[in-house]
Design a protein that fits this description.
Structural class: alpha/beta
Number of helices: 6
Radius of gyration: 17 Å
Helix content: 40-55%
Largest sheet: 7 strands, parallel
Length: 228
């Protein structure tokens, strides 16, 4: 895809991987509409921030209406990046925490994607990239809920690929290993001395996949630090 002057939605664009992806897309001449719960701490002439909790379908409906007003109904790229995580043994986790993980990581992805697909079908092109995790293919003790959500993202991505490929729409599942971000801290993990990947490296994989030939498609991208 030629990225110049394309419109993209990036969920969770205010920090970490989402911020790095946003900055990389802006450098390619993409207009980015960032969907976030909190206002980002950066500005750009081609960046627009929309405040939304993607776990709330009504808020997503409103955010989508605001976004289409900014893009004239042309959205070529969707990066489903927003996600949360909790650690804890399954028998000790509160049902509310379990539900919140699925509400954001799985249901939120659905609420956003269902709006964008019809616009991409009209244009006969588009690329949806779902940010999953290494936990989406591997079970990790103490992270059953998070692993479950990311397994769901992996399965949804493959199903969407099968549904949309003949409409000219690509769907890619990008599964990173450990990345330098605030995510581990938010999950309650102690500081790690492992050699983690940089958010900008994840962003470079996103741009590479988006710029591929129209008939060349990355269904799955799995990235890991070489020497963790």
């Amino acid at each position: 895809m030629d990225l110049l002057n394309k419109n993209a939605i990036v969920t969770g664009s205010s920090r970490g991987i989402g911020k790095a992806i946003t900055e990389a897309l802006l450098e390619e001449g993409v207009t980015v509409i960032g969907w976030n719960r909190t206002k980002p701490d950066f500005e750009h002439e081609h960046f627009h921030s929309v405040q939304v909790d993607i776990a709330d379908s009504a808020q997503v409906d409103r955010a989508f209406e605001e976004t289409t007003g900014l893009t004239d109904d042309h959205i070529s790229i969707l990066i489903n990046n927003a996600g949360i995580g909790y650690k804890g043994a399954t028998d000790e986790m509160e049902p509310s925490e379990w539900q919140q993980l699925f509400n954001v990581n799985v249901h939120g992805l659905f609420y956003v994607t269902r709006h964008v697909i019809p616009l991409m079908k009209q244009m006969k092109q588009g690329h949806i990239i779902n940010i999953s995790s290494g936990a989406g293919t591997t079970g990790i003790a103490g992270m059953a809920a998070y692993c479950g959500t990311k397994h769901a993202v992996h399965g949804i991505s493959h199903a969407l690929h099968a549904e949309l490929r003949y409409d000219g729409i690509k769907v890619t599942c990008l599964s990173p290993g450990s990345v330098h971000s605030n995510f581990s801290k938010e999950m309650g993990s102690p500081p790690s001395k492992t050699n983690k990947m940089r958010p900008e490296d994840i962003a470079s994989s996103v741009v590479h996949a988006l710029k591929a030939h129209p008939n060349y498609h990355y269904v799955d991208i799995e990235v890991r630090p070489l020497q963790p």
